Structures are given as C-alpha cells and as structure tokens.
Structure prediction request, 252 residues.
Amino acid sequence: MDKLKQLLESYFEIPAAGPGQGSAWNFQWNSPWPAWLPDWSVLLLGSGIVFLLIYAYLKDTAHLNLKKRLVLIGIRLTLFAIILLFLTRFTLTIHRTGLPFVAVLIDDSASMGLEDDYAASASTSISKAFQQESQGKNRLELVKDLLLQNESGFLLELQEKHKLRLYHFSEECLPLGEQGLIDLQDYQRTQELLKQLEPTGKETRPFHAVQKVLNDFRGTPPTAIIVLSDGISSTGDLDLLSRAGALAKSKL
Prediction:
C-alpha cells in the first residue's frame, strides 16, 4: 500500500515526505441525489442499473464469444463508474502529517568510560561474537557502535515511523545536534555528532534526564524514551533509573 501511495504522489508531483513526516489520504464526495433519499435505496438502485446493463449487453452481444463480451462489458462498466465519480465530485486530498517522537538518551558520564570484561561473564545471553567485538571498548563506545553500525540501521528503523530526537546526559540533559532532531539521511553528520561524545560527565542523573525530556515534549509526549546507560545513579535514590521509568509510564 505504501508503494502505491508513493507512486501516486510521484505521478501527481507531490513533494516527497521529509524525515519524520507521513501522509494522510482523505476521500471526499458529494451525493448528487436529494438529501432525503437514503443511501441504501441509492445503492439498491445502482445495483439494479448495473444488473440491467450487464443483462442487456449480454443479450445484444450473444453472437460474440465470451472473452469479447466480457471485455466490452468491462469497458461499459468502467465508463459508468467514471460518470458516477464525476457526478459525486469525488476528490482525494493528501495532507502531510507529523510522526510521533521517540527520544534516545545517551549517558556520557564518567562511568560510561569504564570497560567491562564480557569474556569473563558467566551469562549465557552474551554471544561470543559480542565478547570479541567489545574487547578494548568502553561502555560509551559500545553505545556508539550500536547506533552507528550498518550505517545507523537501528536509528533508521526507528525513523521509519517516528521523528528522532537525541539527547546526551550526565549532570545535565542536553539535545544532541540542532534541538536534538536527527536527519539520518545525512549519515556523516550523525556520525560526527555521536563521535563527539566523551564520557566526561561528573554525575549520572537518569531520572533528571527523563524528566527534562518529558518537559521538552509537554503537550505532545513521545511514543517512547530509550535510555542507553549503565543505569547507575551517582546522586542517590532520587535519580534512580527505576524512578524515571515510573515517571515516564505515568506521562506517556
């Protein structure tokens, strides 16, 4: 269905939807019959007319083979449908719509500069491939790998149905790039923004970060908030990530 929409929009020279945009199709028509006439009676009358057309044409073309008769009937019914569309002044309107937001929060506090020895972990959920790839990389570098691998495949998948807004947080939560909005068609720009992140923050405040994002989206809450962090609050129980989850659940 999406392919058909794109084809028709291209045919009618409608500008392509930008990042974070969708399109809403609305079909409108005006009834050419009197308002007091119920729709069911019009449908019944129309069905009767179509039946009579088919019956009369089959009778008049009895000397032709079935294939030719079906083709001619199809042409006549198509003309009948076109006339009906003209009478009803059938129109299609296409409106650009904004897609819902997803916020991605990246922890760049000092604890994200630590390296974890996944090879020594007893967890069976960690694959050998990941154990090898993670060697010599700190936590923030692993986050960057997740977001940038396959030319930002993870973020591109999110952007198919959402607008993306990226933040980085430690003691403060700040948008990444211009107001946090990311156009992933410019992969190099996204790569540069993420590579600039360094684990230098003095504190980790996940609750404060989620609260800041919810305030930014006041009135239009995001579909989801994705927090990429080691989950450790350095400022006490008030900034625990678990509290942030409860806050987000109450707002989204």
Summary: The radius of gyration is 29 Å. Helices lie at 2-11, 39-60, 66-88, 128-133, 139-159, 187-195, 206-216, 241-251. The mean pLDDT is 80.
